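During the reporting period the student researcher (J.K.) took over the structure-prediction task from the postdoctoral fellow and processed the backlog of single-chain submissions. One of the processed entries is reproduced below for the supervisory committee.
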Amino acid sequence: MAGTAPTLDSLERRLRKIMCADTTFVRRYQHPNHCGEAAWEEGSKSLWISLDPFWHGELATLLHELTHFALRMDRTWGELEEPMILGLEDALGHRIRASKSRAAWWRRALQAKLTKEGR
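J.K. obtained the following structure tokens:
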């Protein structure tokens, strides 16, 4: 995304690339009071995401956590990060739900990651 202004399209492409990576792992986990979390080591390409659909939708939570990782690949956003991601999560969710092919891609990708993790 460097060099040109980012768009929802370029962000979704970036999130798809991260989602497809062999170093991205997704599982369902019962969090006590939140819908999901992502963990990674600085400088590492490995990403672990846990989702709890009880608190919020899996797609929204997945997009939220992937976006945290994608944004931090370029820089640290500090207190701006969470409000930015909440807005992007909503806009990306609308974009994906408005397209049968996008929704199908994300559904398949999430199911593949969950199946790979044996959950």
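The committee noted the following: Residues 8-116 form one domain.
J.K. will present the remaining backlog at the next meeting.
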